[in-house]
Amino acid sequence: MQKKQKKSPALIMGIESSCDETAVAIVSEEKEILANIILTQLEEHKPYGGVVPEIAARSHIDHLNHLVREALEKANIELDDLSAIAVTSGPGLIGGVMVGLMTAKSIALAKGLPLISVNHLEGHALSIRLTEEVQFPYLLLLVSGGHCQLLIVKGVGDYQRLGTTIDDAAGEAFDKTAKILGLNYPGGPAVEKAALNGKANRFKFPRPLKGKPGSNFSFSGLKTAVLRARDQVVEENGGHLTTQDICDLAASFQEALSDSIIDRVKKGIEHYLEQGTDNKVLVVAGGVAANSVIKEKLASLCTNYDFNVKAPPISLCTDNGAMIAWAGVEKYHLKEFSGLEIGAKARWPLDPDAPPAIGAGVKA
User: Fold this and answer.
1) Which value, in Å, is the radius of gyration of the alpha carbons in the chain?
2) Is residue 49 within 8 Å of residue 43, measured between CB atoms?
3) Would you list the DSSP string of 174-197?
4) In angstroms, rounded to a whole number, what is the distance separating the alpha carbons of residues 67 and 108?
5) d(CA 187, CA 190)
6) Each residue of 32-70: pLDDT tens digit?
7) pTM of the complete model
């Protein structure tokens, strides 16, 4: 039997384990982050150039209980002081999601606390409201390792998808390009660093879907173009790439990818405005939101449309427990609680009514 809900300020614990970060946070309804503990698995996955689901799940099992204790100690509270437990129930790598969900269920059952099921993508979508006063509705560009979507955020649980990737996500394209160029994992920071010393106009890479109707994204063809350009340079150089070749390829790729994103967002802004919305705000969330070239180009685009572009702090752009805890706060106020019978979801679209994007598959 659940305990009587505590009086304000509500304290929500957020647990995130959908991919390769094990994270626990405690956030108050007054927007105070009392603890935000993140354990990354980068070194464990680096030898493989990407996330290995089995390794990720085992790491979550090994570390999650300790992180819960560490978060409580940092916040200087006990489990009995919590108002609810919020947890990522999907989408994500199913093994990892199950680890977090079972941990949250155990705490909720043992302490009689409400359980709040959170869509990982909604955690990203609402994270800006933890650090800034952003009102609904707003336009959201969600760019991460596994997702690339453009949505109108109308309210908690209320989303209209304007576009999605039909193949690779932006972060995935960075990772694969880094591997092609022999750069470190994760690819986003590695490619951006190499691009600083590169010539972005040396290679004429395609801008996928540029000028096409709608706001869908595509990066698979761009990644293939990088591979072919690399092979051609290697052949011309007698079997190797110079450091300058790598930097030029990285810069040219980053320029093409960012141009493609800007074109797709431009279409989305125009669609958003056609709906007669007065709140001219574009929120950029997800790990790729940290890329400086993309941020600069989005800022320039938004100036043309008199939009404010906002992004959470870098620490809240990548996967973290604070965004899950804050989504929990939003749902706590709406009394959106879940039963212990809820299951983990590998797929969980924010806009289930959106028409399927041809070729998008599981990433829609």
Assistant:
1) 21
2) no
3) HHHHHHHHTPPSSHHHHHHHHHTT
4) 16
5) 5
6) 999 999 999 989 998 888 899 999 999 999 999 999 999
7) 0.93
